[in-house]
Write a structure and sequence with these properties.
Elements: H1 11-23, H2 27-40, H3 45-55, H4 63-71, E1 96-102, H5 109-119, E2 126-132, H6 139-146, E3 150-153, H7 159-169, E4 173-176, H8 186-189, E5 196-199, E6 215-218, E7 234-237, H9 248-251, H10 259-263, E8 267-270, H11 279-291, E9 296-299, H12 307-316
Parallel strand pairs: 1-2, 1-4, 2-3, 4-5, 5-6, 6-7, 8-9
Length: 317
């Protein structure tokens, strides 16, 4: 469905309209809306970051084409006219100061994945700073506050104010966890606030596109060797890039036999947003269901409350 919104709409309305289309499994329409919005608001970095996120779900673009869009991110994230000099301590045997920046230190999927970074770091060698860019506070937020040496709030600070705060802390390694997602502060990484800057890209599995980010940590499943050139950062391969820690409520559940023993068939399950269920994914899943006799697929997604979306998925199988 195509919309013809007024060019007088503020950026926030463009963002909301495009996000609704994207969440409803219409990435092409969401992309068109954002390209139109950027014509009305050139240089608007939040809209551009949203466009990059949506491009990751575009089937009509290959990796080199998507990379071209990401390389333009530097045009939207510019350094300040007079950046301050880096000021790390010259003391050779001190603990390294590592700062993590994200808008998702809360009840969020990213928090589940990155929590081991804070649970298992060695305080003898590392002094950990968390720079939070979220107004939402919950039990997960409190957990992170208890698993770092220093907690900093960024959500009310401008680029210059936040940059001064981070530089005053004397950070050695500054790490982005969000990528081009809501609540990211890539504007700070454009200022070169630490001698070493890196991204884990947990919010969006992609390059930042910023030349001021030195490294991207990934594993061969996330960034196969043939895709490494499509990153502005140097790709550093680690053994496991993603690790999921289940919530405590799941750990308290008793172990039971798999339902397939009682049902007589295997049930596959997924709880993903519709934009991830493109035709390639659905074709693959359909082939798996056909290959496993009597198997079923359980889908959980709020957008499936819409009859149109349920019909689209049923047609795929």
């Amino acid at each position: 469905m195509k919309f013809s919104p007024s060019t007088l709409m503020p950026p926030e309305q463009w963002h909301q309209l495009a996000q609704e289309q994207f969440n409803n499994g219409e990435p092409v329409e969401a992309r068109r809306l954002l390209e139109q919005a950027l014509k009305a608001f050139p240089g608007h970095r939040e809209l551009y970051s949203q466009l990059l996120y949506i491009l990751m779900a575009s089937q009509d673009l290959n990796p080199p084409q998507v990379f071209e869009w990401f390389q333009r991110a530097s045009d939207f994230y510019q350094p300040l006219p007079q950046p301050s000099a880096l000021n790390p301590s010259p003391e050779p045997w001190r603990r390294l100061k590592v700062g993590y920046v994200s808008g998702d230190f809360r009840n969020h999927a990213l928090a589940r994945v990155c929590s081991p970074l804070f649970q298992y770091y060695d305080p003898r060698f590392f002094e950990v700073y968390i720079y939070s860019n979220s107004t939402q506070i919950d039990e997960t937020t409190n957990w992170f506050k208890q698993h770092c040496d220093h907690w900093r709030e960024l959500q009310t600070l401008s680029t210059r104010q936040a940059a001064r705060l981070i530089q005053a802390d004397g950070i050695d390694i500054l790490v982005d966890l969000s990528g081009h997602t809501a609540g990211c502060r890539l504007d700070l990484f454009a200022q070169r606030l630490a001698p070493v800057q890196a991204t884990l890209g947990l919010g969006i599995i992609a390059t930042t596109g910023l030349k001021t980010v030195d490294y991207r940590l990934a594993d061969p499943a996330i960034v196969p060797p043939n895709l490494a050139p499509f990153n502005t950062e140097e790709v550093v391969q680690v053994r496991h890039h993603l690790r999921w820690d289940p919530p405590e409520v799941l750990l308290q559940l008793p172990l039971t036999p798999p339902p397939s023993l009682k049902n007589g068939y295997i049930t596959f399950g997924t709880a993903n947003r519709l934009y991830k269920l493109n035709s390639h994914v659905l074709d693959l899943w359909a082939s798996i269901l056909k290959a496993v006799p009597d198997s079923q697929l359980a889908l959980k997604c709020s957008q499936l409350d819409l009859p149109k979306q349920r019909e689209r998925l049923l047609r795929a199988f």
